[in-house]
């Protein structure tokens, strides 16, 4: 089987897409901490609640690492990556629509669960 030559071959596109997705997932995990000076007063949060917010996302991230590994082993990594990218993108968008502390923690935990599959 002959590989397509040039920059836009399927392997290059896949690796480039995966690299950009990983970059955005890292930004999404850490960007909320940089936005705390703006987010905390808007939601009326204190530093304890900010810590809970970051911890919930980290716990969701680490718990789903095991589940994501099992799913990837069972169904194959390619079949798990696309749905997780779509769900992660939806969760990231929902972060901007959160109206209170509880909804923000729920959405960030949800995002942490699916970010781990990437």
From TrEMBL:
Domain of life: Bacteria
Subcellular location: Cell membrane
Pfam family, one: MFS_1
Keywords carried by this UniProt record: Membrane, Transmembrane, Transmembrane helix, Transport
Transmembrane portions of the chain: 7-27, 47-68, 80-104
Gene3D superfamilies for the chain: MFS general substrate transporter like domains
Boundaries of every Major facilitator superfamily (MFS) profile domain copy: 14-118
Presence of the UniProt keyword Repeat in the record: no
Record-linked PROSITE patterns: MFS, SUGAR_TRANSPORT_1
Main location: membrane
PANTHER family: MAJOR FACILITATOR SUPERFAMILY, SLR0616 PROTEIN
Record's protein name: Sialic acid transporter NanT
Organism taxonomic ancestry: Bacteria, Bacillati, Bacillota, Negativicutes, Selenomonadales
Gene name as annotated: nanT_2
């Amino acid at each position: 089987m002959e590989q397509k030559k040039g920059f836009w071959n399927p392997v290059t596109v896949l690796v480039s897409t995966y690299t950009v997705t990983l970059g955005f997932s890292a930004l999404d995990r850490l960007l909320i901490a940089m936005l705390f000076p703006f987010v905390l007063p808007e939601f009326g949060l204190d530093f304890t609640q900010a810590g809970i917010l970051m911890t919930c996302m980290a716990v969701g991230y680490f718990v789903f690492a095991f589940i994501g590994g099992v799913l990837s082993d069972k169904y194959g990594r390619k079949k798990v990556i696309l749905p997780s990218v779509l769900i992660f993108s939806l969760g990231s968008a929902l972060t901007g629509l959160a109206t209170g502390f509880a909804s923000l923690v729920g959405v960030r935990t949800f995002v942490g669960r699916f970010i781990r599959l990437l």
